[in-house]
Specification:
24% strand; metal ion binding; nucleotide binding; Maf protein; EC 3.6.1.73; NTPase/PRRC1; single chain; nucleotide metabolism; alpha/beta
Length: 169
């Protein structure tokens, strides 16, 4: 059994990592650890979101783990179509090898995008917009906007599998 640290205690991210390894047929003990992302609380580009994922993975790796995973959600401006949801993941092993992957893109409604451009965080905005609480720990913005046809956990599960592909021999 491998030991995997996830640079977050967000339940949706932890469930995604557990599901990804289960889907790959790899027995894994998954442990969430609190680490800084080193980026703004609302990443506003692919580069910043990917950097946050890499930073989380690097901060979470230690001698007790075979791999560490960082998962980060953000937004990216895509003229002329507006603001899109983006997701990135990074996996690092004990020798410092890194695999990365990106997830789905989803065009955000302009009323949500306007709030994000004012400096508000997506988690707060989507909770207010959908009249919910802690959506980022559950279905995520993608779940709300797709009526749960695609959930945050699913997106991150795919991201983990794609990032892990680098380590498959």
């Amino acid at each position: 059994m491998i030991r995997v640290a996830v640079g977050s205690k967000n339940p949706a991210k932890l469930r995604a990592v557990e599901a990804a390894f289960r889907r790959m047929g790899i027995a894994a003990e998954v442990v969430g650890v609190t680490v800084p992302s080193g980026v703004s609380s609302q990443p506003f580009s692919d580069n910043e979101t990917l950097t946050g994922a890499i930073n989380r993975a690097k901060a979470a790796i230690s001698n007790g783990y075979d791999f560490a995973i960082g998962l980060e959600g953000g937004v990216v401006e895509t003229p002329p179509y507006g603001l899109f949801l983006c997701n990135w993941g990074a996996i690092i092993d004990q020798i410092g090898e890194i695999g990365v992957s990106g997830g789905h893109r989803l065009q955000l409604p302009e009323e949500i995008a306007k709030e994000l451009r004012k400096g508000h965080e997506l988690g707060t905005v989507i909770d207010r917009w959908a009249n919910g609480a802690n959506i980022h720990k559950n279905e995520g913005t993608i779940g709300i906007l797709t009526r749960n046809q695609i959930r945050r956990e699913q997106v991150f599960e795919d991201v983990v599998i794609c990032a892990y592909a680098k380590f498959i021999k």
